């Protein structure tokens, strides 16, 4: 075993907690699974025109009534456990909608992120929330408050992503997007 360390390793003081290593692995997998980086904005996400539609749902809330959500990808990392979800939301209405407040989570995430999108196994026995890093930031699309980049104007579509930890025996999930109907039985790719 070599005793030589990279500069990044030298800057770490003391032993790393296990949680940091696991979450560091999750962040690395997020980069490998989804063609955007952690902390990226929705403008960095893949174009919805290039993506397959695995399921869709119309908006159910007052703000989302003229919107459609589409699940574009649910893919498991080859090493197992980690699942990335790519989804798009289109605004077919006449008013812009700030998705940061619509898709945000009431959970323990520290950043303005679209962390409210959850996965559920068949039958809804277990719900999976997006992973977070050691700083409690969601490993998903991050927005910046009520800025223009999280607002979907009429006739626009934005694509978002999130990373989850889902057991290998789960073969399909229901995708739950706040203020949209549930998109059921989406197979893992």
From TrEMBL:
Signal peptide coordinates: 1-40
The answer to keyword Signal applying to this record is yes
Q: Which UniProt keywords apply?
A: Signal
- What's the superkingdom here? Bacteria
Region labeled Disordered — which residues?
39-62
Name by which UniProt lists this protein: Secreted protein
């Amino acid at each position: 075993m070599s005793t030589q360390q990279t500069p990044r390793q030298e800057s770490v003081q003391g032993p790393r907690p296990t949680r940091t290593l696991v979450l560091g692995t999750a962040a690395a997998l997020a980069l490998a699974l989804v063609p955007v980086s952690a902390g990226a904005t929705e403008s960095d996400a893949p174009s919805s025109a290039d993506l397959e539609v695995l399921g869709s749902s119309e908006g159910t809330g007052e703000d989302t009534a003229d919107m459609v959500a589409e699940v574009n990808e649910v893919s498991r990392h080859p090493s197992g456990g980690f699942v990335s979800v790519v989804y798009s939301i289109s605004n077919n209405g006449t008013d812009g909608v700030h998705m940061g407040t619509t898709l945000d989570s009431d959970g323990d995430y520290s950043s303005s992120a679209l962390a409210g999108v959850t996965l559920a196994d068949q039958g809804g026995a277990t719900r999976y929330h997006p992973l977070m890093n050691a700083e409690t930031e969601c490993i998903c699309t991050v927005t910046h408050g009520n800025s223009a980049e999280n607002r979907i104007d009429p006739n626009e579509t934005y694509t978002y992503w999130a990373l989850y930890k889902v057991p290998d025996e789960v073969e399909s999930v229901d995708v739950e997007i706040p203020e949209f109907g549930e998109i059921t039985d989406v197979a893992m790719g």
